[in-house]
Amino acid sequence: MRPGVTGQDGDVAFAFVSGNVALDLVGTLQWRRTTPRDQLTGAVDLRRWIDEAGLLPGGPDDVDPTAFRRALELREAVHRLARDRLEGRGFDRGALGVVNEIAAAPGRRVELTAAGARVSGDTDAVLADVAAAAIAVLADRDLVLKECGRESCTRLYVDRSRGSRRTWCGMDECGNRVKAAAYRARRRGDRR
Ligand SMILES: [Zn+2]
């Protein structure tokens, strides 16, 4: 299994490579510019994503349709605000409203028990914390926010590498493929 990528056989593998859980959520709609593929097609997917993101072990007991819709709304609002920032625009007011409203709800509850930390909460609580993570990343102008260098990928991430030289969301999924394609193109050029 590749680092940062999870999923069992038959499941869509979620990636957690963005360095921020809200940006990871944005990444569940892949290939946004070309042939979008949505990894969150229903409540079951969202539950599994919440579990695999480490937000709530096992995921929430129940994801009702309203909470599922709210998760997608949050995802697209965070995407819009991140794009605004990447393109040097002011934040979209509607998207700000969505993120701030979801963040205003109470978040997950964390307790210390003899067995360690116990985290509990419903889907809305999880989404409140994801919205808070979005606010943290979007408010911090010192963080280097980037889109993957592979044209079709569209995944966003925080570049925390030294000198901010990270170009890809992940080497396996994007970096190596772009390099292999460039190598093939060069070889074709040589033969001409
Ligand atoms: Zn990528």
Description:
The protein is of the alpha+beta class and 192 residues long. It has a domain of 125 residues. It has six helices and six strands. It has a two-stranded antiparallel sheet with strand order 1-2. Strands 3-4 form a two-stranded antiparallel ribbon. The longest helix is centred in the middle third of the chain and has 22 residues. The protein starts with 20 loop residues before the first helix and ends with a helix.
How many whole angstroms does the radius of gyration measure?
18 Å
Largest sheet: 2 strands, antiparallel
The number of distinct β-strands equals 6
Shape: globular
Short note summarizing the structure:
This protein is of the alpha+beta class and 192 residues long.
